Amino acid sequence: MSHPTLESRKLLNIRALVDEALCFQAIREVRWPDGVVRCPHCHSAQVVKYGTDETHRHRQKYRCKACPCYFDDLTNTVLKGRHQSIVIWVLCLYFMGLNLSNRQIAQELDLNKDVVQKMTYQLRRAVAEQKPKARLGGEVECDEVYVIAGHKGHPSAVMKQGRKGRRNRLKGARGRGTLEGEKPPILGMIQRGGEVAIHMLADVKQKTIAPLIEATIAPGSQVYTDEYNIYDRLTEWGYRHKTVCHSRGEYARDEDGDGFHEVHVNTMEGFWSLLRSWLRPHRGISQENLPLYLGFFEFVHNAKKRGKGLLDSLLPLLLT
Ligand SMILES: [Zn+2]
User: Can you tell me whether residue 171 is helix, strand or coil?
Assistant: First the structure.
């Protein structure tokens, strides 16, 4: 017995389930938390309401008496585009937080994939650029991996390579990654029990990683790495440094003899596995876009929230 196929797109219009008026109300509360609307240009509070947008009737317009100028709820934010409704923007951001691909988001919102690609690019770039810089201290692990991302794009592989004795080295992948190739290196720094910072590197050299490490990790912190020579000068750079010797088959060492195997980079290794899963749904990430994906995931990981809860962190970042 066969059932007639339901056209679920007609049955379920997700966009209609979100209330545009409530969206704008939430946006105003995030943007002006004390309830005082301020001019985005001169920050004056001498502002009067000035009608609403013709197309998006819940989008409030204002006039600043100090500048003088006109603005609205979304002026000077990444959500300012008037081509899509705020409901579409917020749902797009929500789906990005759930790590849907552009193709999946296009399907859920009944939009063209190119339109969605443009929106997610803008949102991802804004998050990557505006996210707070991670500041790490205490016990920090540093490590690097290589992501396949090139012109053809195929980012699903996050790998260790070109170094003897690495557990997750992939067969057939040789040579250290460079930006010129299709395997850009990624430097990761993670505080045990704390935040992570990840950066795409132009190359794997001491002079490339030194400024990143110094800008991220507090001087005097205990830093754990493997024996790779790019980390050789950490003591010189003002850190306490211990290495685990992967090439001797060692993955954790109890150096002070207290029963805890504290010398390891397993927290970083665990993060690489999360990153690998996060990138998997996205096909065709170019090297130009990879830093945006990394920045977005760094923010998501450090926010320690998913789904609706993540919007509570994403919206303030994009609106203030
Ligand atoms: Zn003004």
Answer: coil
